[in-house]
Amino acid sequence: MSGAAVATTIFGAFMVGTVALGLFAVRGRGGGGGGLTEWSVGGRSLGTGFIWLLMAGESYTSFSYLGAAGWGYNYGAPVLYVVAYLSCGYAVGYVVGPMLWAYAKKHGLVGITDMVAHRYGRPWVGALVALLATVFLLPYIQLQITGMGVVVSTISYGAVSLNWAYFIAFAVTTGFVVVSGLRGSAWVSVLKDVLVIATLAFLAIYVPLHYFGGYGDFLDRVVSEKSDWLTLPGHGGAFGQAWFATTSVLNSLTVVIFPTTVAGYLGARNADALRRNAMLLPAYNVLLFVPMLLGMAAIFVVPGLAGADSNLALFKLVVDSLPAWTVGLIGVAAALSSIVPMAVFMLVIGTMWGRSVLSLVPRLRERQKAASQVVVVVAGALALLMTYTVPNTLVRLSLISYEGMAQLLPMLLLGLVWRRLTLVGGLVGLAVGVGTVCGFVFTDHDPVWGVNAGIVALGLNLLVALALSCLGPKGEPVGDEVLARDPIHEEAESDSLRV
């Protein structure tokens, strides 16, 4: 059997197993759990272990195998911003996660659009946020489809074309997430994490020994020949200290209100599970150093990679030097690192639309779960279609995804802890922030003045929101729809909040 056949067979077997595992996750739960809460947030019953695996899986995407290695290959040290912002984000999440969990549990909410609509007492506000968040999330689905397609085509030695690989990514993910929801994603994360840890641990030992004779010789060559890669602003000088600091701060704040992160929060059994999870998650970041180092190793082994090819730096090291069955397993780990976050992205989009947009139609109000499942398929199919036809459109949108999502911070997080923030202030600030981000990014002014353009936009957003809330017409919050001032000391099992 040829190497391509071996690797492809292993990959195919694991993809079938992935769908089966996702479906197995909801056995005995009424064929998918009965209601929207079970499907979208796992019935709020996931313990520390599953929450850890799910949230680690959502943050450890195909970027970790492709982009992280590519950044290490092209720039070096600036790629460490990923480790910085995730670690800081987990610390912020220690406080924010239990707050959002308690608020959502008390009021029966299942996502950020629910929270915004409930806070301001306007269902259409939730629908508006759902539309905006969908624009920022769709590129992530497309990026995962593209990442998995590149991986599958590479590990099959070209036997599987990119177009078929894109379709496989869509079909496998849709196959289990529509039925099993968040719980299925958590179970598949178990398989993913076992393979990720095993393959990266192996590569961390194999590559330096095989190509350099050990870490000593490898690191000596990096220090003596590629010292620019080891300090900021990195090779090329585009990402200095100000950019690194502002990007880490912005992303660490944004990640805690990212719809997929909030889905993980709301799936927890209790608030203590989230606090324990926040303490355990940084350990997972150690794995991110491996593709970064391997990307730098590829500088010497496969020099001259440019553009998108640099994202294949890690796989260029292993495809020609390892047996096909090993390449297949590494490819499965990378593919699952696309499937798990893609499943959560699709699930969140479906939940937002089913809960906040389609529910505005009276006849769909009682069928929110079915409507959400249909939206999952539509969102995935749209991302797949655009991957085939106009991939550059979503690539352009992806440039503003994280920075754009950051503009929801005042309206959502500040709005939940500060009663005086008005709907007008929040909406105008949001419009100013998103407009500023789009202006900077689409005119190629990011970074601007050496800092992340998103944090400049967030500063303007916050300034406008505070000014209009303090100086403009006063809007009263609805009932007790604002978080407690001291929810971090709330008992884990409590259903109520201190006001």
Shape: globular
How many helices?
23
Structural class by helix and strand composition: mainly alpha
Query: What does the largest sheet look like?
Result: none
Low-confidence stretches: 479-499
| Structure summary, number of beta strands | 0
In whole angstroms, how far apart are the ends?
68 Å
Helix coverage percent of residues?
A: over 70%
Mean pLDDT over all positions: 85
Q: What characteristics describe this protein?
A:
mainly alpha, globular
Task: Describe it.
By secondary structure, the protein is mainly α. 71% of the residues lie in helices and 0% in strands. The protein has 23 helices and no strands. It has helices at 3-24, 30-33, 36-41, 48-59, 62-65, 67-74, 81-107, 112-120, 123-155, 162-212, 215-225, 241-254, 259-266, 271-280, 289-301, 313-319, 324-357, 368-389, 391-398, 401-405, 409-417, 423-442, 453-471. The radius of gyration is 22 Å and the shape is globular. The N and C termini lie far apart (68 Å). The relative contact order is 0.17.
